């Protein structure tokens, strides 16, 4: 189990490839699957399923996997607070921050009045949205997580694509960032500071 958790922490907020992870850990995939179920039951990890307008594709696509405790994820990959800063390693900071946001949203959606489910999005053209929230009636919000205080319209590119694809079903797109200021990026899309999660 410790080796599996370390390997998952090293791949925090990335798509889960069970065969690749099993090879990294040195166990058969048939052993790894129940272990992942156990880690999820113990609230150590969460699987974030892929989102698509095609329900069949949604069911067969790979989930992303993230540790629910960002401090544990950082410790398992031996990264200090300074080492996780965007100036030290943007990739490490980005993956840890994405996992952190997913964990915080999971908490909020658990007690929210409206039932929503959390997904991630990736298409064949390279389009990616870190998190998608979908309500039971089909309304969708997209969230991009950026480990930087300097965001621009390019960071909302795929949110805008999703807005155009979904029309009225798309209710809001957020680019969460580490800076202090909010900025609009067009119709129903804006950049907002990370602390919006607690306000």
From TrEMBL:
<dbReference type="InterPro" id="IPR025420">
    <property type="entry name" value="DUF4143"/>
</dbReference>
<protein>
    <recommendedName>
        <fullName>DUF4143 domain-containing protein</fullName>
    </recommendedName>
</protein>
<feature type="domain" description="DUF4143">
    <location>
        <begin position="4"/>
        <end position="147"/>
    </location>
</feature>
<dbReference type="Pfam" id="PF13635">
    <property type="entry name" value="DUF4143"/>
</dbReference>
<dbReference type="InterPro" id="IPR036390">
    <property type="entry name" value="WH_DNA-bd_sf"/>
</dbReference>
